[in-house]
Specification:
Layout (H helix, E strand, L loop, with lengths): L4 H4 L18 H11 L6 H34 L4
């Protein structure tokens, strides 16, 4: 089984870029994503950054909804709603 450069890249062998981390993603998954999302994203890196940002925003929105529900319940308990 041949190992590609992308599979072999690790934090130990890659040059350090300030403010960035290197991750490993299976070559097969990268190839599929490149084919599927080539029109929307210029690289796997830009695709992964987009996905991670979206996941973080979804988590923040969920927390905001939970906080809002808690606030509404407290206001209702106090008779304001």
């Amino acid at each position: 089984m041949e190992t590609t450069t992308r599979e072999m890249a690790t934090a130990d062998t890659a040059p350090a870029v300030p403010g960035r981390r290197q991750i490993e993603v299976p070559e097969e998954l990268c190839a599929i994503a490149e084919r599927k999302f080539a029109a929307q994203f210029e690289s796997i890196q830009s695709l992964l950054e987009f996905v991670l940002r979206e996941l973080i925003e979804d988590d923040a929105e969920s927390l905001d909804r939970a906080e809002q529900a808690l606030l509404e319940r407290r206001l209702k308990d106090l008779g304001y709603i």
